[in-house]
Amino acid sequence: MNETSAKGPGAIRVRPGTIELNARATAEQRIRLVFHNTGDRPIQIGSHIHLPDVNPALEFDRARAQGYRLDVPAGASQRFEPGVSRELDIVALGGRGVVPGVRLPEHLREGEA
């Protein structure tokens, strides 16, 4: 069972070469930002989350990240331990760049108890 095969159930067959992630994104649709976890707990962000909607303890330029997500493979995530800063690439969301319903806008949260 030490041999690998491209045949049979569960076989994974790939084309030779390199796969470019988010290949349709132009240079103008990519930004590099610094993220800093100011909280006391780890924060994890998935590949398709709209960045301005993530945990408020993660500091970064939210206005600049409007309509963007992490530039990572689908299903991947980034974890930020407390006090950790990291510079990451982000990429524009497809379509209208809107992800409704992830987090309530600030003006709707004012009456929270």
Task: Briefly note the structural class of the backbone.
Answer: mainly beta
Write down the CATH topology of the domain at 27-94.
Urease, subunit B
What name goes with the CATH superfamily of the domain at 27-94?
A: Urease, beta subunit
**CATH architecture field of the domain at 27-94:** Ribbon
The CATH class of the domain at 27-94 is identified as: Mainly Beta
- Tell me the number of helical segments per DSSP (H or I, 4 or more residues long): 0
Shape: globular
Strand fraction = 25-35%
Question: Helix fraction?
Answer: under 10%
| Residue-averaged pLDDT | 83
Q: What distance separates the N and C termini?
A: 60 Å
Oligomer: single chain
Radius of gyration: 18 Å
GO molecular function: urease activity
Catalytic activity: urea + 2 H2O + H(+) = hydrogencarbonate + 2 NH4(+)
InterPro entries: Urease_beta-like, Urease_betasu_sf, Urease_subunit
Pfam family, one: Urease_beta
